[in-house]
Amino acid sequence: MKKYVTLFFLGLGLSSYAQTNPNAISLYVDMNLEAEYFTFYGLSYQRFIAPNHGLQVYTGFSWQENYSLGVDYTYNRNILSEYLSAFAGIGVGMEHHSENSILGVNNFYLFRPQIGLGFQIPTTNFGIFGAYKPKFDLKTYDTFDSTPITFGIKYNF
User: Fold this and answer.
1) Which stretches of the chain are assigned E, i.e. beta strand?
2) pTM for the full model?
3) 55-109 tens-digit pLDDT
4) Nearest to 120 by CA among 29, 16, 6, 35
5) Torsion, CA 57, CA 64, CA 152, CA 87, rounded to 10
6) CA distances (Å), 88 to each of 2, 10, 16, 20, 105, in order?
7) Which three-class secondary structure state does DSSP give residue 117?
8) Residues ≥6 apart with Cβ < 8 Å to 61
9) Is 21 within 8 Å of 120 (Cβ atoms)?
């Protein structure tokens, strides 16, 4: 019985600590609503550097042998409850398009503002998120893609 009580409080402590953990790793889908061949699947790592401020690095790939790399800054705030949060941020990234892409071999250097919502699943280390992240090409100073929507699942540790 003593073991079960200890395990219960250990689990309770770990799950409540997860709400304040400074690290998160995510699996995400960066969907293009106009052209599915520009949809990227990826992995990201986020580190909170202050209570509401986070830095995130990400990498992704598409089925057209394209890949993306980038870094984002996000400002996060809880809204309505401790489990629902809103975030806004900016980032820079690079997308490489291979010869299989309809754009041909090319590198795009991108500026990516973002706004989104996250939900921390109560009593777990897992959460889900969604964001609108348009892409602006830094070489031509033009809109590269205005329709990407990102969805993902994250694990806090």
Assistant:
1) 23-32, 40-50, 53-61, 67-78, 84-97, 106-111, 114-120, 126-132, 135-137, 142-145, 148-156
2) 0.80
3) 999 999 998 888 999 999 999 999 989 999 999 999 999 998 887 666 666 888 9
4) 16
5) 50
6) 46, 34, 25, 19, 32
7) strand
8) 40, 41, 42, 67, 68
9) no
